[in-house]
Amino acid sequence: MAPYRIRIFGDPVLKQRAADVTDIDGRLVKLSEDMLATLRSVAGLGLAAPQVGVQKRLFVYQMGEDEDPVVIVNPTISDARGEWEYEEGCLSIPGLYFPIVRPKEVHLTGYDLQGNEVSIEADELLARLFQHELDHLEGRLLLEYLDKDQRKSAMKELRRREVEGDRSAGHMVRAGVGRGRKNDGWEL
Ligand code: ZN
Fold it and tell me: Cα–Cα distance between 172 and 139 in angstroms, integer?
């Protein structure tokens, strides 16, 4: 079983700015391991600490089963270039995807769990993931990138789920139901 429950849209923790990590200690290592275990339990590629209720500037990602899991502490993005549209989803807004344009390439810097500086040139999906996770650390959700009409229909769907207490959408996505129907975007 996943160590954490992923916080869902409406949880106030998702709208707060996370604090810088000041100590890389055993607790942070444990947090990272638990976040990666949580990420593996769902159909997602990346997970930021606020999504498990922890207000720290840290995120984890794993781009595929055969890829190494990565932990990034106190990340910063610089040198955003180009434009790329992608059907972007979010583990905290399960089952909803939106075509969102963001820079295609970014340069990410931060620290690993040994305290070493990391520097990664990313494009397309990885660049998208970095931007999405950094938004989580700022308390920003992808809904903020939608135009008026998209936002209206997204809010309507989210309210409908709230009324019906519908928790099934996320599970459907996890089981692969509906994936690829309109798109093959990933939840970040
Ligand atoms: Zn997200």
Answer: 26
Instruction: Set out the domains of the chain in order of their start, with CATH numbers.
Output: 12-93+100-145 (3.90.45.10)
Q: Cα of 69 to ligand 1 centre, how many Å?
A: 17
List residues bridging with 86 in a β-sheet: 100
SS3 state at 133: helix
CA–CA separation, 24 and 58 (whole Å): 11
Q: What is the pLDDT of residues 11-21, one digit of tens each?
A: 999 999 999 99
CA 136 – ligand 1 centroid, Å: 7
pTM score above 0.85? yes
Closest by CA to 46, choosing from 172, 136, 153, is: 136
